Amino acid sequence: MNRGAAITVASCGKTFADGTRALSPLDLDVRAGETLVLLGPSGCGKTTLLRLIAGLEAPDAGGHIRFDGADVTALPIEKRNVGMVFQSYALFPNMSVIDNVAYGLRVRGMAQAARRAQAAGVLEMMRIGALAQRRIDQLSGGQRQRVALARALAVEPRVILLDEPLTALDAALREHLRGEIDALLKRLAITAIYVTHDQAEALALGDRIVVMRNGAIAQVGTPRDVYFRPADDFVADFVGVTNRLTGTLKNGRFETAAGVVPLPQDLVPPAAPSGPGAVRLLFRPEAARLASPADTPLVFEVVQVEFQGARQKVTLKDPAGARILVEAPADGLLVPGAAVGLILDPARISLA
Amino acid sequence: MHSADRLARLFLLPLFLFVAAFFLLPMVRLVGVAGSGPNGLAEYLAILTNPRHLATLLATLALSAAVTAATLAIGTVVALFLARNRFVGRPLLVSLLTLPLAFPGVVVGFMVILLAGRQGLLSSLSMGLGMGRWVFAYSMAGLFAGYVYFSLPRVLVTLMAAVEKLDPALEEAARSLGASRAQVMRDVTLPGIAPALMASGAIAFATAMGAFGTAFTLATRIDVLAMTIYTEFTLNANFATAAALSIALGLITWMVLALTRNFAGSGVAAAG
After folding, report:
1. Which among A77, A81, A105, A136 is the top mutation candidate for probing chain B, defined by the most B β-carbons within 10 Å of its own β-carbon?
2. Planar angle of CA B203, B209, B213, nearest 5 degrees
3. Which architecture characterizes domain A7-236 according to CATH?
4. Structural fold of domain A241-351
5. Among A77, A301, A317, B194, whose Cα sits 20 to 30 Å from the Cα of B73?
6. Domain extents for chain A?
7. CA dist., res. A12 & res. A16, Å (int)
8. What ipTM was reported for this prediction?
């Protein structure tokens, strides 16, 4: 397989014929060989951005798309050498599995024996060689997904674009295939752009994640950045459960109703903090550790404990009544009404 | 369980009575009448042994095949265009295109005369251009135009529904693999709407084989099967021949449709 292309999206917006603004002009660099996940709720513009990169839609005037520096804005999808996997798989029902996988080679004029051999090789790589002669309607959802991926990879594309490829599958299979796709993309070192609305998928697969909202980019970062240092409330809520404490900044410390949180040096405070209650501290349920009230200046009251075997989910409230959720090892026995101290991991908190 | 089965059978009784009254009994009677003429059972083969009837049959088959091919070709292009483009006046255009659904064959024949008769639009146009008088209303070409006009709305409605049901991602997938527009059409779009093409083509063919109203208006100098049956029946009072020809018309149409379906079925299986 050839090495993946680097992709540059330069001030690409998209306004549809009926005047709907699907995408505000935005810039994005995709590095050669990386897996970039476009994450966001439906209608956020992630699929539109993917279709612009694919060449299925043209950006508004002024927008440019470059593959390895070469401007491909005017090229339709059939000239861009991109592999694409659709949510519906879009396998050709009038062709067998092997003919589906060999189709891209067939339209390139490769002889039947050669293209069948190459397609069989890709099927073997996906470990579905035994399905070669099957009809599409004889395949399970997971098998169809693999065939769709094999078909997209058979033409050795510079970029592979995946539009919610796992959404149509059940949860267990989704998780399994997620691991397979991740391993495959890493092994091929192909540039991959993966659209999903599932935060777990995004965190597991992405080298980097682009969180989108209302046709604009809300944050670009590694999964850890996006999860532990979300750029704003929207990102924080979209990629998982978020605890918020309201308070003020004083001498490099965050003061709130439950006590004091020391802040790390590198944590950037929000632009204009003013007055009490103006700053909020954000952290994930698993970024906090329960401790004895004597060991920490941050103390809460236990409201509810949900035992889950290895772990427990503990709901706490501060003196002002604000509730937070903490996920902790299930080693200590907690009773509602007791006071409990909390130690936050300084590397996994952010301010908003 | 069993009483529910009995109840279900009871509900099928009206269907059975309906089929018996309007299908089985007339068919049996038709078969009986056909064999009761002076030629006896040989009358059944009149359509093949009588050269005039055989020529009529072949002409009718050729006309129907041509009508089917033309209707499907026009219908596919129009259905693809209408299903994929949204523009001002589209709903009006669609309803105009389906307007002939309401016309009886006689009206369609009348419209062909208005278009291509001696005093028709094309006639005056060609005279005005000094290219002689174009009159084809009373020929096979006139019947052809009338039948295509008559069948097009039915075919169009079926094909538009099929095109709209086709997953647009199929064509996008083919394009992403490098297929040109023509290759996408050949490998994805047409196979995707093949069942609808088959079904609407069968309807167009059967309609053209048996159409009477349009033929009655236009076929004054040419022979098509439906007209021959009418002539034998009313003018010559030759009931046996009329009945035998009717049976032959029904059987041949049915056979052609069955063969097409078979061929299409095995074709699809071979491709898959």
Report:
1. A77
2. 100
3. 3-Layer(aba) Sandwich (3.40)
4. OB fold (Dihydrolipoamide Acetyltransferase, E2P) (2.40.50)
5. A77
6. 7-236, 241-351
7. 13
8. 0.81
